[in-house]
Structures are given as C-alpha cells and as structure tokens.
Amino acid sequence: MTKADSPLKTTRARPTSAYRPLGTLADGVVVLQPKVKPTHFTNSEIRKTIKKILETNTDDC
C-alpha cells in the first residue's frame, strides 16, 4: 500500500458546550449561561423565579 492509497485520517471535533461562562465566584465556581436564548420563558421570568427561590432558601440557612 503506497502513501497515496492510504485512507485519509479524520479528526473528531470536540463537542461544544451548550453553555458559556458568565462569571466566576470568589470561591472559584464558574456560573454558566445558556448559549441560546430561552424559547419557553422570557429572561425576566427566569430571573424573577431564581430570585424568589433564593429568597425562600436563604431563610432556611
């Protein structure tokens, strides 16, 4: 088998994440954000829900 007859070598593409880094907290935790805009809820609805959950959970700590 000559070099011209050898099959081409294919490379695998790295799978891309569906999230992108939004920021890093003081303890090194990376906060992620989706790369695409939400389709079922608006950004403000999501923010309000997260804020409401955080407020109710801080009372337990």
What this model shows, in words?
With 61 residues, the chain is α+β, with helices and mostly antiparallel strands. The chain has a domain at 20-58. The protein is built from one helix and two strands; from the N terminus they run ββα. The protein has a two-stranded antiparallel ribbon with strand order 1-2. The radius of gyration is 22 Å and the shape is elongated. The mean pLDDT is 80.
Provide a short characterization of the protein structure.
This protein has 61 residues and is of the alpha+beta class. It is built from one helix and two strands. The chain has a domain at 20-58.
Give the helices and strands, then pairings.
Layout: E1 19-24, E2 30-34, H1 43-58
Antiparallel strand pairs: 1-2
Summary keywords:
1 helix, alpha+beta, 61 residues
Question: Quick one: overall form?
Answer: elongated
* Sheet/helix structural class: alpha+beta
Q: What is the beta-strand fraction?
A: 15-25%
Q: What composes the largest sheet?
A: 2 strands, antiparallel
Q: DSSP helix count? A: 1
**Total number of strands:** 2
**Portion in helices:** 25-40%
Radius of gyration: 22 Å
Low-confidence stretches: none
